Amino acid sequence: MFNPSRLRPSLTPVVGQMHRVLRRRFPDALWMGDTNFPVVALTFDDGPDPRDTEALLRVLDRHGAAATFFLIGERARRYPDLVRAVADAGHQQGLHGYYHRAFPLQPAPRLAHSLRQTQAALAEATGQPPDQYRDVRPPYGVFTPSTLKALCGWGYRPVMWSVVPLHWRQSARQTVREVVEQVHPGALIVLHESLPGPPVARLADEILPRLQDAGYEFVLVNDLWRTVRPGEDV
């Protein structure tokens, strides 16, 4: 049973206020799910990575948790076996650009081409149709209104965040504490592969049981889209 008293309240009200403003300003993106349901989506950016991906899959399997991986196309072509492993484990995969480059710095035709390349790389690795991969997270979380308008016009679904610790710049203890303090029903949590700092699999291994003990269920980004209309003030 969900027990919010098991979790400490967020210590970042300013971030929360900014998040509410962004959700209202950019309603076509997914920022979080419906706060009436004790579900969260755990997501990983910047993969696949030979150090982190398989370790993450083992941790997720051990805890019986679902996750969504936002992959870089160039890395997916380099490590197609890891892309297949993520798909075979039942996790969702989304797009993070063909290279890790800020979307607003790319001309629209080049950005559209890079996303198609990334779709093709995932499709070739998994045998699934390219248009299955519609969810997109902009690298660095950087976007403009015209970026989001273009993504939606091309048939993609922009996916943002509600909890994103800077785990590559701080201790594992601090990162776990931040996630536990800031999590909420419908949260969209972002961690990263292939970065310095504490191993991301270790972080996930500590975060997952804490949130599960508090009554949260881990779901895919696809599931969050189904719980709330994009931009709805929940």
Structure summarized in a few sentences:
With 234 residues, the protein is α/β, with parallel strands linked by helices.
Q: What can you tell me about this protein's structure?
A:
- This protein is α/β, with parallel strands linked by helices and 234 residues long.
- It has helices at residues 13-25, 53-63, 73-78, 80-88, 108-126, 145-153, 172-182, 200-213, 221-227; strands at residues 39-47, 68-71, 92-95, 135-136, 157-158, 188-192, 217-219.
- The strands form 2 sheets. Strands 1, 2, 3, 6 and 7 form a 5-stranded parallel beta sheet that branches. The chain has a two-stranded parallel sheet with strand order 4-5.
- It is globular.
CATH-defined superfamily: Glycoside hydrolase/deacetylase
What is the string of SSEs from the N terminus onward? Answer: HEHEHHEHEHEHEHEH
Estimate the helix proportion, in percent.
40-55%
Total domain units: 1
| Class of secondary structure makeup | alpha/beta
CATH class, named Alpha Beta
Q: Which regions have little confidence, pLDDT < 50, spanning 5+ residues?
A: 1-15
CATH topology: TIM Barrel
Oligomer: single chain
Strand content is 5-15%
Taking all Cα atoms into account, the compactness measure Rg is 17 Å
**How widely separated are the two ends?**
21 Å
Q: What keyword list fits this structure?
A:
single chain, 234 residues, alpha/beta, TIM Barrel, five-stranded parallel sheet, two-stranded parallel ribbon, 7 strands, disordered N terminus
What's the SSE blueprint?
Layout lengths: L12 H13 L13 E9 L5 H11 L4 E4 L1 H6 L1 H9 L3 E4 L12 H19 L8 E2 L8 H9 L3 E2 L13 H11 L5 E5 L7 H14 L3 E3 L1 H7 L7
Parallel strand pairs: 1-2, 1-6, 1-7, 2-3, 4-5
Helix pairs in contact: 2-8, 4-5, 7-8
